[in-house]
Amino acid sequence: MGGNTLIEFRMLGFDIKLDTSWLFIAALITWSLATRWFPSVLPGYSPIAHWVLGALGACGFFISILLHEMGHSVVARGYGIPIKGITLFIFGGIAELGHNPKTPKQEFMVAAAGPFVSFLLGLLFFGLGGMIQSAHISIPLAAVFHYLFVINIILAIFNLVPAFPLDGGRIFRAVLWKGFNDYGKATRWAAKTGMFFAYGLMAWGAWDIFLGHYISGMWSFFIAIFLHNAAKSIAAHYPKK
Ligand SMILES: [Zn+2]
């Protein structure tokens, strides 16, 4: 994360920042959709059509991540937690809370809101895609919605993995916090689990690279490093007394 803001705008009272590193993921998604996904689901269409659909898919992906972060932010604001801003960057999005949730229940609800929004979006895109296809309105547009259905369900499931700092890890911390009645201890446990998951993801990425899937392997590897560092730095804030 370079910390260079490309675009900044306000939506629903939230400060939204688009980091320049997002351009890389937008290009990667457009490229992989245009050269792999759409040619395989719409083989009869021209490369130009595949690229246009790829760009549309990347826009939909961007909106999906934004709405996921909005989900966290709206629930947090409902609990009186100020939102410093929402940043979209190379590994997705981050809704920056002004302070930590005050109770396990608040933490649980704020964390669950993002994957919940992704699930709802997945269902919505599934329905829209099906409607457009069965009404013969546009097969390519239906294919874009189908991609957005798949990606939102993947986002929801991936984020629910109980590995801090993913949403599932925050949900896990909320449950531990409730059980231990000790925020620091809950954070250390959740962060340890997160680091353990990150090592697994690194191994998976390495295996993928070994199999010749360089891009997805490198991607898993980089996400694992990012998650590992985030979990480690948060754990360092709550040293064992
Ligand atoms: Zn989230």
What does this structure look like?
- 70% of the residues lie in helices and 11% in strands.
- It has helices spanning 22-41, 47-78, 104-134, 139-159, 167-180, 183-210, 214-236, and strands spanning 5-11, 14-19, 83-89, 92-97.
- Helix 2 (47-78) runs antiparallel to helix 3, helix 3 (104-134) runs antiparallel to helix 4 and helix 5 packs antiparallel against helix 6.
- Zinc ion binds at residues 68, 72, 114, 159, 167.
Report a brief summary of the structure.
This protein has about 240 residues and is an alpha+beta fold. The chain has two domains: about 1-160, no CATH class; about 160-240. It has helices spanning about 20-40, 45-80, 105-135, 140-160, 165-180, 185-210, 215-235, and strands at about 5-10, 15-20, 85-90, 90-95.
List keywords for this structure.
single chain, 241 residues, alpha+beta, 2 domains, four-stranded mixed sheet, 7 helices, globular, binds zinc ion
Summarize the helices and strands and which ones pair or pack.
Elements: E1 5-11, E2 14-19, H1 22-41, H2 47-78, E3 83-89, E4 92-97, H3 104-134, H4 139-159, H5 167-180, H6 183-210, H7 214-236
Parallel strand pairs: 2-3
Antiparallel strand pairs: 1-2, 3-4
Bound molecules: zinc ion (ZN).
Radius of gyration: 19 Å
Shape: globular
Low-confidence blocks of residues: none
> What level of helicity do the residues show?
over 70%
Taken as a percent bin, the fraction of beta residues is: 5-15%
The run of helices and strands is EEHHEEHHHHH
Beta strand count: 4
Return the domain count: 2
Mean pLDDT: 92
